[in-house]
Each structure stands twice: as structure tokens, then as C-alpha cells.
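Usage

Read records sequentially. Each one opens with the input sequence:
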Amino acid sequence: MCAIAGFCAADPRQPPSEDVTAGVARMLETMAHRGPDGSGILGLPGITLAQRRLAIIDLSPAGAQPMPLRCGDGSAPARAWVALNGEIYNYQELRRDLERSGHQFGSDSDTEVILHLYEQEGDRCLELLNGMFAFALWDAREGRLLLARDRMGEKPLYYQVRDDGLVFASELKALHRFARARGDAVRMDPASIASYLALRYVPGPATALEGFRKLPPATSLIWSGGAISQRTWWSLPHPADPAAPSFAAPDARRQLIEALREAVRIRLRSDVPLGLFLSGGIDSAAIASLMTELSPRGISTFSVGFAERDYDELRRAARVASALGTRHHEIEIRPTAAQTAEILPELAWTMDQPFADSSAVAMWHLAREVRRHVTVALSGDGADELFFGYDRYRAHVMARSVMTLPRAARRAAQSIISLWPAASTRRNAAGRARRFLAAAGMPDEARNDAWIRCLPAQLMPEDGPADPLAAIHAAARQCASPDPLRAIQRADLLVWLPDDVLHKVDAATMAHALEARAPFLDHHVVELAMRLPRELNMRRGRGKSLLREAFAGRLPPATLRGRKAGFGLPIDHWLRGPLAGYARETLGSRRFVERGFVEVRTVRTLLDEHIAGRASYEDAIWALIMLEHWCARHVDAVRVDSAQVDAACVPGAEHALRGVMG
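and closes with the structure output:
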């Protein structure tokens, strides 16, 4: 787990210039939090390649990067070099096969396996890797750069094509800093900002900055002789054909347990302490069960909770920890208005792009505390998308049933719900019922849009793109299944998962030099899940049925029955209480008004209605607050000296800079 950066010249014979080397060094400084254990910069004709290291496997100097592929006694120039961010989980199995073919290794690192596998298989090496990764491999013989990203998009990689070459990095703000140091003007991308306002995150491959791109998951990029090409090297499988022979439930449960056990087993490979993010739900509890089975010395688990009962999972997590006998740690967040306001500028810097999933705050706090104990933490991420765990999936099924009821019955239900508090949130029954009935009668795509939208369509900027949810719609329409719920699942796996969930986890954990691993995202588990009939996962109106059945007898019954609570922040309460004044001040500032993202009267209406309890607009208000903080940190850039930049980039540093991009 590390940070990578580099610049590849249009002319492969061109040696690195001083300003390019300095620019790459600045990118590493910006990402110092991702790799506190060392750094290296390689300068060769055609390439400047750099890496910050968080040592996880092979802690010795032999694991340092950029890493060369040498031949013979090592006296000849290296044939290739690689810089890796991430982990190759099946490196031991690959290494054994390569050694049988005559390859000789100089380290115990998983990184070195990539070099030898590339030498033997070429670009096909990607298809043999099981891991989470983004890497840059320079083929010195061919003068050719290979950039690649893992299948599900766990590790990020950004790039920019320039007149003089290609620049890339693990974080967008590193590229931003490189561009500004070269005197480039950097502007926001209006279409991406509109998508953010609709979704609370920026869907790739676009970014919030014009001219900068995010390499899609399961994609490789080749830069050779100033020309660029991309290839999708793995595709999310299409769901099983409904007419195909169905899985028997016992068989499916057995295969799921076996695939998950293997995914957990190879993710326990580490030369540093590791643990687990444990919520009160089935996802992380299932991983905890398998980790306990595979770790005779026991495991460490970590949970976060809030004072507000609707958002607290500590009791549920403690039940699982007690049943499995883990070394359990609890972290409770009781932020004051001042504490919350204080962290938001830092969070905007950490998240790299505009990002308003409120669970990022909880993830940031959790990662900070977990890092005091371990360097690696497993998680249950991915299970909701793979096994229909979100309430939204169940709601789509219910909506079709509700619309078959007589109109009088539907009107009666709406009349009753209209008597409930207007400020009800998505966390309580009244809020869920309101959101459900507001969109239940719409066509499938429109209904899904209504349920995932952040800023209501009528409040979106008039000069924005015609369809700010275009990435969601395009992914859903790729689905070959006639089942509309499968199309929604596909969009979640291709867009929501990599650009919201995994982006949040990577940014928040790496801000504290903590590595997160997700066994559910092992491609063998993903491919199995996509082959399973939906009926095995949605029974009696509940998702993740197969997962619950597979772990029956391994986990407490209450954990198997429990409703998904999520990992959100109680911002609805905070914005009516301790953060109400903060919201008015932030969104009423002259700078925010001048940006013109949303009409001023619209913002005042949102605030007035929410704070007074006449409506619930916490998602939209939070999104606007986080957008303003992102602009302050990443757009309102000031030129500062290198000492100030270093201070601003080091986690925990005390500074008051507003946008440190020199």
C-alpha cells in the first residue's frame, strides 16, 4: 500500500528535466500520508517514476520501490521498473509457478511478482493477478509505460495527457499541484460538479477538474511514443440467464463459504498487525467469523458509534465480538459543532474530489483510531451490492407490488403518512415511507433516480448537463438481464461502489496510513455472486438471504435477523442543532454566493425549511457545505513555500491554510 506518481515524456529518449523531477517530487510530498515508511524516485530517459511506501509485505530494503527487473548478476541495466499502490494477494502462488519456470527473485515482496509475471506473460499478467492495485510499469526495452487498475476499483489512479507527456498519480491533488507548478491554469469541470450535486460524488472517469481523468477499474493504459491507448482487461460478469439451470440453495451456500474463506485467507497475508472494521451487520460479521476460524491466535475488531440511537451500532457489534471472542475496541463519536466544523476542511482535502457521503466523517475517525493498533484492516465492503443488501433494492420490489393495490388504498396510505413529521429522515419509518411513496409509481429508472438523488432535479443549476446521472444510466443499460433490479445492481457495482464507497474507504484510511482490504471484492466471489439467481438473495422481502443462511450457526441469531443500519452520520440532527449556524455561515458567505453553483434563494429555502423542521434537506445542505470546503482547499489555491506545503500534507499537522496547491 503506497502512493505512486510519475511523468512519461512524449519522446522515450528524452532524459528527465529538472522541473519534471521537481514536479514529481512535489507530487510525492502531497501524498506523504499514504507512505510514511520511505520514498524513491527513478529518473531514466523517457520516464520519471516515484513511490511513497507503506511497508506491509517484506519490510526490508529489498521491498523498496520503484523496483527493477534485473537479469543475470544484476550488472546489466534493468529491463523494467514498477511502482505499486496496493497488494497482490496471490503473490505466493504466482511466485511458486514463476520459480518453476526459472525466474529468480531478490525479495519476498508481492511487487516483484508483477515484474516477473510481466516478463513472462506481457500485458496478460493483469488477468492472473488477484489483488487491489494501481501500478505503473516501465518497459525500458520498449520505451513503453503500462498503467493498470484492479478489477473493482479499490485503488485509485489519475492521469493527465499533456503536450509534453503523460503525468499520473494516486491522488488528484498531486496532479493538480504538478500542473500549477508548471504554470497551468486549472478549472473546475461543470458537468462533473453537476453530477456531484446530483449524486454526492463525482462518477469516473471524469473528475472535478477539466483535463484530468480517472483510470476506470479493470482498465490498462499504454503510453508509447506519445500515443495513448486503453484496454478493459476484465469485465463485470453479466448475471445468470433466468432460463439457465438454477443453483440448489445448499450448493450455493457451500460455494459462497468456500470462495469467501479463500478470499479471507489470502488477505490475512501481512508482515504487520491486522484487524477488522466490525459493524453490527451480517457483512463484516461474516468476515469476522472466517478470520477467527483462520487465525488461531484471535483477531482484533474495531467499531464506531454515535450518541444518536438511530445511528449507533456499538451494541450490535459488541454482540458479534463477544460471540466470536475477538479483541474488541469501541470508538464513539460525540462531536460538538466546533469539532465537526474543524475537521471538514481537512476532510475535503483528504477526499480529493467533492464528496458528500457523510459516512466519510465516521470512516476518517475510525481509521485514525484503528491505525493506533494495526496497519491493515479488513472490511465487509461490497456485500450489499453483490447480494442485494440495500433497502433500496427491497423498495423497488415493494413498489411494484404497491402499485397493484387499488388507488383508494394508496391514497389512504399517503394521507396517513402526511400526518407524520415533515422533517422525518431516511433513518426512521416516517422518512422511509415518505421517500418510498413519493417515487413508488414511477418507472424503474426514474424511481431509482428519485431515491438516489441528492439535490432535487428542480434545484439543479439551469446551465448544467442534460443528464447529471448519465454515468448511472449508461451502466444500468449495459445489463443484459431483463430483470430491472439487475440493471440497478450493475450501476451500483460499476459507479456507486468504486466512486463513492471505495473512494471513501481508500481516502479516509490512507489519510492515516492504514490499509483496508475487502474480501467480498475478490473477483472469484464477485463472479460467483453474479451467477446466483436473484431469488436466492432476496427472499420474503429481504436481501442477502443466501449470506444469512450460509452463516447460520456461525453468528448470533440477532445478527442474522438484524436490519441494515448503514454507516452514516447524524447530520439531520446536527444541522438543526449545533451545526445550524455553521451551515448558514458557510452557505451564506460571499465566496459561496459568487461561485453560483445554486441560486441563492434556493439555498436559503433549503436551510430555512430544514432548520425549522418543515422538511428534510440534510443531504443537499451537506453536499453544498462539502463543495464549498473542497473549493476552498483545491480551487482557491495560493502559492506557498515548500515548508507550508509539507505541513499541510502531513496528517495531524496544525495549519490554517486554505487551499495549499503551490
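Summary fields computed downstream for this record:
- The chain has a mean pLDDT of 88.
- The chain has 28 helices and 17 strands.
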